[in-house]
Amino acid sequence: MPEISDLLSENGSVYVLKQPFLLFLLLHIRVKSSTFVAFRLSINFFNYLHMKPTHIEHIGIAVKSLDEAIPFYERVLGLTCYAVEEVVDQKVKTAFFKVGQTKIELLESTDSEGPIGKFIEKKGEGIHHLAFAVDGLADKLKLAEERGVKLIDATPRKGAEGLNIGFLHPKSTFGVLTELCEDPKK
């Protein structure tokens, strides 16, 4: 495999050879006429690993009234609402519940012209979005855009609980509004 090592070194890709899982891929891909194929496959795999979320941060559920929805989650499901917060620029009031490492975020519109107000008017109450925790949010948004994903937020913005957030458009995520979240305190 010295020819692969030389090719990668000439292209400034020595870093790839220092990563054991990538080297494993390079050594186990059959290279017949072009070592460049092995190089590209490894780099794509490496990029994929950097896109991977750490966990599901929360599930956002649009409701008409927090006052009506919170008791259901507390009395019926036995969860505790640990925070209620208004995100003024998004025209929404939120309530949070923890279920293991994941949270449930209830979203009540404070303005019928806001995103949650429009969602409820069009689709009714229900699951609004799925949020994934990531490290390096700005890089993840850039990487998603480079991969052809339509973004709602090209740069991170402030969300509830002090998280930095960015949304991916549902047209690029199989109909699911997808939020990427990063805790700036980590």
TrEMBL record:
<dbReference type="InterPro" id="IPR017515">
    <property type="entry name" value="MeMalonyl-CoA_epimerase"/>
</dbReference>
<comment type="similarity">
    <text>Belongs to the methylmalonyl-CoA epimerase family.</text>
</comment>
<feature type="domain" description="VOC">
    <location>
        <begin position="55"/>
        <end position="183"/>
    </location>
</feature>
<dbReference type="GO" id="GO:0046872">
    <property type="term" value="F:metal ion binding"/>
</dbReference>
<dbReference type="GO" id="GO:0046491">
    <property type="term" value="P:L-methylmalonyl-CoA metabolic process"/>
</dbReference>
<keyword id="KW-0479">Metal-binding</keyword>
<dbReference type="InterPro" id="IPR037523">
    <property type="entry name" value="VOC_core"/>
</dbReference>
<protein>
    <submittedName>
        <fullName>Methylmalonyl-CoA epimerase</fullName>
    </submittedName>
</protein>
<dbReference type="InterPro" id="IPR029068">
    <property type="entry name" value="Glyas_Bleomycin-R_OHBP_Dase"/>
</dbReference>
<dbReference type="GO" id="GO:0004493">
    <property type="term" value="F:methylmalonyl-CoA epimerase activity"/>
</dbReference>
<dbReference type="InterPro" id="IPR051785">
    <property type="entry name" value="MMCE/EMCE_epimerase"/>
</dbReference>
<dbReference type="Pfam" id="PF13669">
    <property type="entry name" value="Glyoxalase_4"/>
</dbReference>
